[in-house]
Amino acid sequence: MRRFLPKSLQGQMLLSVALGLLVAQVLSGVLLFRAEERRQEARLVNSLAFQLVRDPQVDLRDGRPGRERRAHRRRIRIERALQSPLTSQEARDPAREAALRAVLEEQAIAIDELVVITRQTARDRYISRALQDRVSLGPNSRFDPDGKIVLAGLKRDGADEWLVARAPVPPRNVGAMRGVILQTLILYIVLVGGLAILLREITRPLAALTKRVERFGGTVDGGPRMEPSGPDDTRRLITAHNAMEARIAGLLDEKDVMLGAIGHDLKTPLAALRVRIESVEDDTERARMADTIEDITNSLDDILSLARVGRPSDPLERTELSALVASVVEEYEDMSEDVELGETQRVALPLRTTWLRRALRNLIGNALRYGGQARVSLSRTDTEAIVRIADNGPGIAEDQIALMLEPFSRGESSRSRETGGAGLGLTLARAIAEQHGGRLVVANHIGENGSIEGLVVELRLPI
């Protein structure tokens, strides 16, 4: 259900207010409807009581209008009868009967018997015959031939006759509900509309700040400073972010200067050493010294690259990833390395080619170093392009995989120092993948007998 909810702050707040207002208006409508029904019921009971209390002027013992037409027109709802109006097919209405009894007792009416029933208008002979004579009912009659009436029969103490009063059952008051609906619409327009405008003024600078933070996190250089806008709290947040951004950028600039100086100061004596070892007469010793210098130089390059990967200087360029992978594999094939290019799919992505080429070289180099061969393939899903590098090496213990992604972390036995490197290959590849918004997935290849048969590294880039 959460996926159907709005994701933005503005949408969630508007939804909360709209639902709260809807609940409040529904409760208000229900209470108003019940109150209106109670008022209608009170008017109906009072109407019956008023007819029964006053002295009726019409004698309708046989159920037909009896005296002059003017009197009948005034007193059409009351009649005198010798028997109770309750028939064997009808049931009494105890709630209305109790309410009517209470009103009559307040008027000091001595009650011998009292019955209240609800009857279809068409089934009441008295009203049906009166309805046939439109003159006798008059133009303002509220009796509906298709509706219902409430009939009350009263027999006073010491009386031989029943007084029978009738009142139409009032229709449901839909006007009150229309008022509630109209009120709700007006509240939605005024309250929710005004809140939407206010939230827009609040969330607009927050959305701009979010984009700025995302851009700064991806490239560090976020461009010109963001101008504070919106409410005072939001302005203070933007101002604080600008100050933090400036400080971070300054620290990173200092780091770059320091790394450049370190790289220069270290590579210069290494170059001098490379020249001096040429005077060593022992070929074996000279080769070992050259390998050590080369190892130090490569480790230094990895360290400097890892430090600079967060601030790439080259822009993203749309590149055919399959062609890039094929070119890197071809480099190793030219050096007679056991690197095999498997199935690939065409995928064009915005990439930093130099950095991604470095990541692929690191991963393929690791596969060759520890597994003796590398099998490279490229596939894609709906959301990701996946470069897969597999080897036949000893793999990595499951509890050591996460550790291998950390800087200067190395495995044991076969992944020892003698194999070369400083333990930065996977770390640098992961950093380059994250630089492109992707991720690096490392897992062992498990054979049919349950043993580890190599390592599989996937460089996953978002499409």
UniProtKB/TrEMBL annotation:
Reported EC number(s) for this entry are 2.7.13.3
Which sequence ranges are marked TM in the entry? Answer: 180-199
Cell location? Cell membrane
Membrane-topology descriptor: Multi-pass membrane protein
Pfam families hit by this protein: HATPase_c
CC annotations in GO: plasma membrane
Which reactions does this protein catalyse?
ATP + protein L-histidine = ADP + protein N-phospho-L-histidine
Residues annotated as domain Histidine kinase: 261-463
- The first-level EC class reads transferase
According to UniProt, the name of this protein is histidine kinase
- Species source reads Aurantiacibacter rhizosphaerae
